[in-house]
Amino acid sequence: MTSEQQLFGEMPLRRFEYDDSVVLAADVGPDADASVDVVDGTVIVVADGQQYEQEVPADDARAFINHGVLTIELSEREGDY
């Protein structure tokens, strides 16, 4: 199941639900100079000199950027995003 939301108030976001996890994906652009980290339940993205923060319910969230696509993986047991 997928749905669309907004990430950081402006980035279009796709949500993919699986049996044991939820995956959020957003296109930050292949030319963006971007990095991501998860600190204390907050996803922090720095892209082209701007910093964006988004709280997530999972303490064990993983986030990475590959070919301009931001991916956030959340454990389903931690709650719904």
Main attributes of the structure:
0% helix; three-stranded antiparallel β-sheet; 81 residues; mainly beta
**Could you tell me how far the N terminus lies from the C terminus, measured between alpha carbons in angstroms?**
14 Å
Q: What percentage of residues falls in helices of 4 or more residues?
A: under 10%
Low-confidence stretches: none
Q: Give the biggest sheet.
A: 5 strands, antiparallel
Could you tell me the strand content as a percent range?
over 45%
Structural class: mainly beta
Radius of gyration: 12 Å
Number of strands: 8
Write down the secondary-structure element order: EEEEEEEE
The rough form would be described as globular
**Looking across the biggest beta sheet, what order are the strands in?**
1-2-3-8-7
Overall average pLDDT: 81
Counting DSSP H or I runs of 4 or more residues, the number of helices is: 0
